[in-house]
């Protein structure tokens, strides 16, 4: 377990350091994801401990957004005056983005004959 | 008084202690999320009862009632916030497991990413502008589909308010997590990769969290979409900002 957590932190640290040193517009942890992927590819398997950590953290991923979300209390005044444009923009844009992205994905996949007919549970 | 602390003094001291240590607000964060998780379960796993939204509502109410500042709260909650980084690195695990499938679907992914990312930025800014939002709000809104730290960085770079962006990003995530299932059922997109990828582009990590709850493959593609859209939004928004 210690090794798994150490590996995670090392990947993130490498990512952050490289991003800051080079100024590339990529988040450090995203770069860290690629390092971890490279490490897994080299190992040719996912170590059991890393698997366990991934299971715990990824199944409660949404918890991690709560502290930033509570920051909504700092913007009560603005949200009160601009609630209509903000809510309308967020709802319309999110729905439209989901629909357009899914449809383009699905359409291109079918055109290329990549569709797998198993699916749906 | 005469140096003998009475009960009120003790309570005051206790409160001072609790405000200074991270323990109280860290506990409250997990507790509020547990309540959200419980309500989500109690509602039969309905996406409309979102555990993040419930947790945020509970915590904001608690902070307002106790007169606690967000800064004080965040001193405690930052330990949870910090885990976003390692969790992002962990996305490599499902990515590695599904690597062949991901590679096979690279072209549909990139096509969907490009169209979806532009849609996310342009539609949000267009709707808000049409309804009279201030320029500062528009600039804070533009990167709202990218994951929090990136979106904040983008907003800062174009003259938006980073902390307002963080709020809008989270609300975007919650909305996406709530509507993705009924919306894509309506559109009859049954493919898990397409469904996950769409919610990842539109609603970053909160969308991915929802996708992981529903289907592992959908979660994997949502995680990839989140990472790719963070990159593309960082490139697109500064290019498009001339029109805002």
Whole-number total of structural domains of chain A = 2
How far do the termini of chain A sit from each other?
Answer: 33 Å
**Run of helices and strands of chain B:** HHHHHHHHHHHHH
Rg estimate of chain A, integer Å: 20 Å
Q: Which structural category fits the helices and strands of chain B? A: mainly alpha
**How many beta-strand runs of chain A?**
0
Question: Can you walk through the features of this model?
Answer:
Chain A has 121 residues and is mostly helical. Chain A folds into two domains: 1-59; 65-121, no CATH class. Chain A is 74% helix and 0% strand. Chain A has five helices and no strands. Chain A has helices spanning 2-22, 28-43, 48-59, 66-69, 76-111. The mean pLDDT of chain A is 90. Chain B has 244 residues and is an all-alpha fold. Chain B has two domains: 7-82, no CATH class; 88-243, no CATH class. Chain B has 13 helices and no strands. In chain B, α2 (23-42) packs across α4 (70-82) and α10 runs parallel beside α13 (216-240).
């Amino acid at each position: 377990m210690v090794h798994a957590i150490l590996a995670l932190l090392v990947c993130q640290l490498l990512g952050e350091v490289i991003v800051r040193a080079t100024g590339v517009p990529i988040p450090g942890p995203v770069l860290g994801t690629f390092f971890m992927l490279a490490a897994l590819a080299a190992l040719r398997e996912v170590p059991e401990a890393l698997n366990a950590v991934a299971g715990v953290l990824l199944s409660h991923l949404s918890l991690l957004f709560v502290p930033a979300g509570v920051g909504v209390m700092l913007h009560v005044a603005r949200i009160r005056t601009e609630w209509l444009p903000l809510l309308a923009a967020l709802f319309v844009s999110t729905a439209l983005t989901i629909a357009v992205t899914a449809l383009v994905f699905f359409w291109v996949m079918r055109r290329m004959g990549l569709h797998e007919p198993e699916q749906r549970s | 008084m005469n140096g003998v602390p009475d009960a009120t003094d003790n309570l005051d001291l206790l409160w001072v202690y609790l405000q200074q240590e991270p323990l109280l607000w860290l506990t409250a964060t997990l507790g509020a999320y547990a309540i959200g998780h419980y309500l989500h379960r109690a509602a039969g796993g309905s996406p409309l009862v979102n555990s993040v939204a419930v947790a945020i509502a509970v915590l904001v109410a608690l902070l307002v009632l106790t007169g606690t500042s967000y800064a004080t709260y965040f001193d405690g909650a930052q330990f949870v916030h910090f885990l976003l980084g390692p969790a992002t690195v962990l996305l490599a695990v499902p990515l590695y497991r599904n690597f062949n499938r991901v590679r096979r679907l690279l072209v549909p992914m990139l096509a969907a990413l490009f169209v979806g990312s532009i849609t996310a930025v342009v539609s949000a800014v267009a709707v808000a502008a049409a309804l009279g939002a201030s320029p500062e709000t528009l600039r804070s809104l533009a990167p709202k589909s990218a994951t929090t730290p990136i979106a904040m960085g983008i907003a800062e770079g174009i003259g938006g308010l980073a902390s307002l962006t963080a709020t809008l990003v989270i609300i975007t995530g919650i909305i996406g997590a709530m509507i993705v299932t009924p919306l894509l059922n309506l559109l009859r997109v049954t493919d898990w990769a397409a469904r996950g990828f769409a919610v990842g582009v539109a609603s970053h990590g909160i969308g991915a969290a929802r996708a992981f709850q529903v289907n592992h493959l959908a979660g994997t593609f949502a995680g990839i979409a989140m990472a790719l859209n963070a990159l593309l939004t960082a490139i697109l928004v500064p290019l498009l900002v001339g029109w805002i």
